[in-house]
Amino acid sequence: MSESLRPAISFHIERFDELESTNSTAREWLRAGADEGAVIVAERQTVGRGRQGRSWTSLPGALLFSLILRPRLPPQDIPRLGFYCAAAAALAAEDEGLDQAWLKWPNDLVLPRSGGRWAKWGGILVEAGFDPNPWAIAGVGLNIGTLTCPLPAFGADSLGGVENQPSRPLSQPLPETGRGASKPLSQPLPETGRGASKPLSQPLPETGRGVRPSSSPAAPLTGIEHLNGVEPGSLSDAVGRAIAPESVLRRLLSHFARYYGDGAGGDWKGALEVWRKRDLLQGRIVTCTAGGKRLEGTAMGVDDRGALILRTASGVILVDAGAAHLHTV
Questions:
Q1: Which end of the chain is more exposed for a tag (fewer CB within 10 A), N or C?
Q2: What is the residue-wise DSSP string for 78-92?
């Protein structure tokens, strides 16, 4: 789709010192009629959470935000939003100087460690439903800096003190609305033209419905190895310089806008290609629980819907992320 025909999304950034959860705040804003493109950023979360109700603990200097969306997608394609976010985060990290960003299906961003280990530096949680119009919240948590790599102040316009460390230019600036107090929304945001938002009574699954057989031929088994345990990591440590969370946010939103616009026009091949080139699990032995069953096999990549292609002893199956919990072997 050409740039001129791509539907636009405008971002409006609101910052908070501390929130229980940016996704929970985003739900409040949706009920108040929030516009698409509202971005809720918190320096700290007290009740952060990930997929399937698991807790998310962030490191100092983390980038924590939720993006409110009104997707023009059929329900079965809502899972693509998580892939848009992951691809955008991977490219933002590489823009900042990371040699290779790796994505661990379905929603983790990871970094290599010595001894075959991996460090998780980011995660994505997409929630969606109807009110009665489609809505979605893309929650993103990225560990940008640690105590070993002091950070510039969050929200700074420049990377002060690290100008001599090259990073790739951001194509265009994004608007923002300033820093807010850590308190519930007391006034509704501007209307979107869809009417007041109703209670979110019809949530959609995160990304799918379970396990289904594959009609695609299995790829040859190459480079099979075990994926060892995952530990916390940070982008700044991996790059070797202090990275401003603000810089990552703006780069990520810029990439996301492109994929979101393409997806609204029915094309999500760009995001999927970025994801597949950075697929950590392809060719590795993994186990997962889906539909109450524990499955073990070799990950053969993801299909055109984003489902994990898993070659097991009984054949090749497709696992949808919404009903799956991935383990390591």
A1: C
A2: TTHHHHHHHHHHHHH
Question: What are the domain boundaries of the chain?
Answer: 3-205+230-278
Measured CA to CA, the distance from residue 308 to residue 288 in angstroms comes to 10
Q: Strand 230-232 and strand 118-130: pairing?
A: parallel
- Statement: 3-205+230-278 belongs to CATH 3.30.930.10: yes
CB 15 within 8 A of CB 180: yes
The answer to whether 132 and 198 are in contact (CB under 8 A) is yes
pTM: 0.76
Residue environment code for 95-112, b if the CB has 16+ CB neighbours within 10 A, otherwise e: bbbbeebbbbbbbbbbbe
Per-residue pLDDT of the chain (329 residues; tens, 9 = 90+): 444 445 579 999 999 999 999 999 999 999 999 999 999 999 998 865 554 455 555 567 899 999 999 998 888 899 999 999 999 999 999 999 999 999 999 889 999 887 878 889 999 999 999 878 899 999 999 999 864 544 444 333 222 222 223 344 444 445 454 554 433 333 333 333 333 333 343 433 333 334 444 443 333 222 223 344 568 889 999 999 999 999 999 999 999 999 999 998 889 999 999 999 999 999 999 888 877 888 899 999 999 999 999 999 999 999 987 556 666 54
Of 321, 329, 323, the C-alpha closest to 103 is 321
